[in-house]
């Protein structure tokens, strides 16, 4: 099939009226050609194999294969294709997974026709477009401080073994015998455990272990 110089666009949306409206609007835009329409993810992948679109306008919520999985599989087959999400949804459990799956741009269906057309042209140039609300959510997410590392995650494997035995009320000699190490080595590990957990004594370390599900 001879390729057009136009930007070839495939529409994937389970609402026929949405596809009809998009196709009608985009047909009036210079340099943009709608080459196919699909009402579900499987048909979208099949038509992508047939028409080799430059850009896919992808809905997120569809029966069967949703837009996230369709995007992932489509880009595995055609990594050069640009997927623009066009959806009504702005919730985190849909937005971030589809971006991680490789979506190039993310627009809401409240976007104006010229904004969708501009996003298609931008995608063809290799430029991503995020609707302002999407950009704000992403910025806020990255501004949030990372969750502090749990204190016990700093412990070595040997220190974890010592702490589990310590939480059972075993003495340094008992721990040494069970782990086949010297008592001085046990004392060294206990000192490190108390420091890393920021507790004052063995009892507090044992309490920490039980509270965090680390005691046997």
TrEMBL record:
Keywords: DNA-binding, Phosphoprotein, Transcription, Transcription regulation. Residues 8-124 form the Response regulatory domain. GO terms for molecular function: DNA binding. CDD domains: LuxR_C_like, REC_NarL-like. Residues 148-213 form the HTH luxR-type domain. The modification 4-aspartylphosphate is found at residue 59. Coiled coil: none annotated. GO terms for biological process: phosphorelay signal transduction system; regulation of DNA-templated transcription. The keyword Phosphoprotein applies. Pfam families: GerE (PF00196), Response_reg (PF00072). InterPro entries: CheY-like_superfamily, NreC/VraR/RcsB-like_REC, Sig_transdc_resp-reg_C-effctor, Sig_transdc_resp-reg_receiver, Tscrpt_reg_LuxR_C, WalR-like. This is Response regulator transcription factor.
